[in-house]
Write a structure and sequence with these properties.
AAA+_ATPase; six-stranded mixed sheet; binds adenosine-5'-triphosphate; three-stranded antiparallel sheet; alpha/beta; 220 residues; 33% helix; globular
Length: 220
Amino acid sequence: MLTIENLYFSYTGSAPWLLENVDFHLAGGEYISIVGNNGSGKSTLLKIILGFLKPVSGTVTRRARRIGYVPQRSASDASFPITVEEVIHSYGKLLHLKKIDVDQVLSVTGMEGYKKQLMGSLSGGQHQKVLIARALMGSPDLLILDEPSTGVDLTSQRDIYKELDTLHKDKGVTILAVEHNLAEAGKVSDRLYHVEHGHGHLCSVRHYIEEYIEKEGGHV
Ligand SMILES: Nc1ncnc2c1ncn2[C@@H]1O[C@H](COP(=O)(O)OP(=O)(O)OP(=O)(O)O)[C@@H](O)[C@H]1O
């Protein structure tokens, strides 16, 4: 679905590298969460994968038919006066979809009852559920999310990861997400991709937690 080979990236275009000699492979049907400290380059890697940024060197091969993207939530999202149904309609137009059934789109994450509401009036969890529903328009085979549960209460976090788990397990959607929420994402991801000091490696959730406990002297 996605292969990265020998990727180097920095915002200046030269060393020191933010991402250095990165290799990554995401197979169809997998769910991988990208984890690592603040500033380690996770969102940057996602932007390179999405084609928003160009690697300085190395290759990114995308084999997905269609990619759905849920961006990181920003404070400005709440102040823009747009309703839920307008968000769905405008995205459908962007995708050149011939028919847009707003109720059907929103029903995937149980948000059809909120279509007349302003985006800014939704709670953090409701907002993310609308963005996930939007990202699923046009039936993407790869769903990419940047910190899907930021600013979301615990109950809504569980709802969101339950939905991601269903999409992954029942509908076969391949998922790649930048994550800080290991408590929830760890339960549903197949593996983690740990970005640290410019390098990345795949590991199991268990291995990552053990490594973390060792470094932090026994505290998670
Ligand atoms: N447009 C930019 N121009 C220059 N530097 C940037 C830009 N965007 C990000 N950076 C820097 O690149 C580094 C990595 O940022 P990035 O957002 O990829 O990290 P992250 O791992 O996603 O962090 P977090 O967990 O805090 O979201 C940071 O030092 C950041 O300040």
